[in-house]
Structure formats: C-alpha cells, structure tokens
Design goal:
With 386 residues, the protein is of the alpha+beta class. Helices cover 43% and strands 17% of the residues. The chain folds into three domains: 65 residues, SH3 type barrels; 152 residues, Glutaredoxin (3-Layer(aba) Sandwich); 103 residues, no CATH class. It has 13 helices and eleven strands. Helix 6 packs across helix 10, helix 10 crosses helix 11 and helix 11 crosses helix 12. The structure holds zinc ion (ZN).
Length: 386
C-alpha cells in the first residue's frame, strides 16, 4: 500500500466463486490443497487453513506463512484434511521459508515480533527491526488508551529487505506490480509481508555500519522513513485485530490509519518519533486541494468507493483528505471512531459492499456526512496555525 505512488494494487483481490462466500467449517483444521498455479501452469500444494469456501467450491486458503491463496474451482485439484491443527510458522520456520524463496545472499534477522529476511546487512536490518518494534508498541499503546482492544500479532511478522533499490524494484514489479517499483516500500495484503530496501544504499558507497551512520544518512530523506513506518503500520493493523485481510475495508480508513502514524520527525535521530502528530506534508496538500478544486460532496466521494484512489490525477489529494478525516475523527469523535473500527474489524472476507452500504455504515457511526463536513473543515482550518 504505497504512500505516494498511487493506490494499492494489492486490494485488487481475485474474486473467487460466487459473490456469496461462506465461512469454512473449522478455521483451525489443517488442510493440504493442491492446485494448478495460473502463472506457471504447474501443480503445487499448500498446507494451511481454509478461511472462506465459496458456493461454487472456490477457496481462500491461508498458508502457514500467512500468505493468502485464492483458489478458483478450475484450479483446484485436490483437498485433504491433515492430522493436527493449523499453526502459523514460528520465527525460525518463517525464516527458513523466506530464505528458501530469496536465495543465498539473504540472511535472517529476528526480533521479538519480526522475522526479517535481508540482503541489506546486519546493521541496517537491525535498525529497521528496532523501528518496527518501537512502532508496534506505540501503535498498541495508542489504541489501548483510546479504548480499542487489540492484541499482539499471533505469529512473527515477515519483512523482506533488499540491499539495493534496483533489486527491490525488480522484485516489487513481479510480486506486486510495476507501480510499486518506484515506491520506497510496500505491504502486501496477500503475502502479509513488508518489502523494503536499504535506503542508505541510494547515496552509493558501502552499506552503513552503525545506527548513528544510518540515521545521519536518512536525515536527508525523512519522507522515505515515513514510507517504512507507513507500510509497517499497515502490517501491524492487519495483524493485531484492527483490520481483516480481504474484507471490505474502506481505503480512506486503511490509508488514514497508516498516515496517522507515519508523520516524519526531523528532530528525531531516526526520522520518526510518535503516533498522531500533525502530518504537515498531508495537511499542506489538503489545504492546496481545498483552495483549488475540493467539492462540497468531497467527503462522501471519499467514503463510498475507491475511485479517487485509482485515478492518478486525484490520488494524492485523496490520500491527504483521508489523513485529514482520520485525524479529525480520532481527535474529535474518538468513541465513534473506536466503535466504527470495531465494527469493521469483524467484517467477513470476500464480501464487497455497495456504495450505499459504505455510506450507511459511515452514517451509522458518525451521523450525517454534510453535518460532519462543517465541523471537519473548521477543525482542519485551525491546525498548524498559531
Ligand atoms: Zn498505504
């Protein structure tokens, strides 16, 4: 879910089966599903659990690395129940799984909650791991204080960190689409992985040896540190009970939550310090948009569908407005926001709402959109002005 280069390609989930999907009978049953891989036309087996079973026999399967597989009926070759319960990989198993996919120059750096498969060297990978851990703690604390019950991730979270931007870009284009090759990183809802590269490698020369050197080099590009935090926030939010992968999550909300956390902090050595600071790049973008072309029905258009995120002309303004709306709701409608997030977290997977459902869901939580608009505009106008 890219910050600046456009909408996430990853939300474009392959639809399985009929629109009406049913929950699998037992989510913890361990199964082996054999299917024909559409890309390679080869057969492959996945061990995991079935999350959704469609009326036509299509499946949504989560494997032990927590990668999601949509299996259409024509791809499905066989399915068998195995002994034992589904368990996600522990850190060591996940590490082995990632290393097997990425080749000899990669090593594993483990932290308490992350398995980082990396070719970027120990110093950078450990620095990133510390940032992830700090972010995760701050995220859980922030929402706990707001009254939203979240949990620590139930399995280690995977990250891939490439040595250079070029190696990252080649992988990103294959894994997630060419539009992500230019980004500083992304989170894949499908694979549940964050994919990044060593930002200090861009200046050329040897890779950084110490945290101080990394932070000194990164001071030149706080927006790239913001991208790491942004993508890592998406991953945390999808793994601690805030969002459900492949459920109908409004884009403004997913992106708003990530931008609420990403705020660059130039005074902090690491380029990031805390959640919920005023996000000046987004605020300034929103101000320019408001002065130039923002319409009276702007909030409604942001809420009911993803059109503004899909159009390259409007995507940056849609992001800025999503940040502004999220910031406003957390600051001014905290209880309603918590209740809304709670309701969204229990939405079923692979069931897509109509624009009217989306509008109604929002109105049920926050009331009439045009009444909210007035308070929203007034509140945002006051921000950052002394
Ligand atoms: Zn994003």
């Amino acid at each position: 879910m890219s910050t600046r280069s456009g909408p996430l390609s990853l939300i474009a989930v392959v639809m399985i089966g009929a629109a009406h999907a049913n929950l699998a009978q037992s989510a913890d049953e361990l199964v082996r599903v054999t299917l024909t891989d559409k890309a390679t036309e080869e057969d492959r087996s996945i061990e995991g659990r079935i999350l959704v079973e469609a009326a036509d026999g299509g499946l949504l399967v989560e494997d032990r690395s927590r990668e999601l597989w949509t299996v259409t009926p024509d791809q499905l070759l066989s399915r068998e129940t195995l002994a034992g319960e589904f368990q996600p990989f522990d850190g060591e198993e996940l590490g082995r799984h990632l290393l097997a996919q990425h080749g000899d120059e990669f090593t594993l750096v483990e932290t308490e909650h992350y398995a980082i498969c990396t070719s970027a060297g120990a110093a950078y990978s450990e620095w990133v791991g510390k940032l992830f851990e700090r972010l995760q703690r701050a995220f859980l604390d922030t929402w706990q204080r707001a009254g939203l019950e979240l949990h620590e991730p139930q399995a280690p979270l995977p990250a891939i960190v490439f040595r250079t931007k070029q190696e990252y870009a080649e992988f990103a284009a294959r894994d997630a689409g060419p539009q992500l090759a230019d980004a500083a990183g992304y989170y894949s809802i499908r694979t549940n992985r964050i994919v990044l590269y060593d930002l200090t490698s861009e200046a050329g020369g040897a890779s950084s040896r110490s945290a101080n050197e990394i932070e000194r080099r990164l001071r030149a590009s706080p927006e790239n540190v913001a991208t790491i935090v942004h993508e890592a926030t998406h991953q945390i939010a999808f793994n601690c009970g805030m969002h459900t992968r492949y459920a109908d999550n409004p884009m403004w909300l997913l992106e708003g939550i990530a931008m609420y956390c990403e705020t660059p902090d130039l005074r902090s050595g690491s380029g990031w310090k805390a959640i919920g600071k005023l996000n000046l790049p987004r605020l300034n973008r929103f101000r320019r948009f408001s002065e130039a072309s923002r319409r009276d029905d702007s909030l409604l258009s942001l809420i009911v569908n993803e059109d503004r995120f899909r159009d390259p002309e409007s995507v940056a303004d849609a992001y800025a407005e999503s940040w502004a709306l999220t910031y406003f709701l957390i600051r001014n409608r905290r209880e309603e926001m918590v209740a809304y997030l709670k309701a969204l977290s229990s939405k079923p997977r692979l069931r897509w709402d109509s624009a009217e459902d989306r509008r109604q869901e929002f109105v049920d939580a926050f009331g009439n959109v045009s009444d909210l608009e007035e308070d929203f505009v007034r509140f945002i106008r006051r921000q950052g002005r002394r």
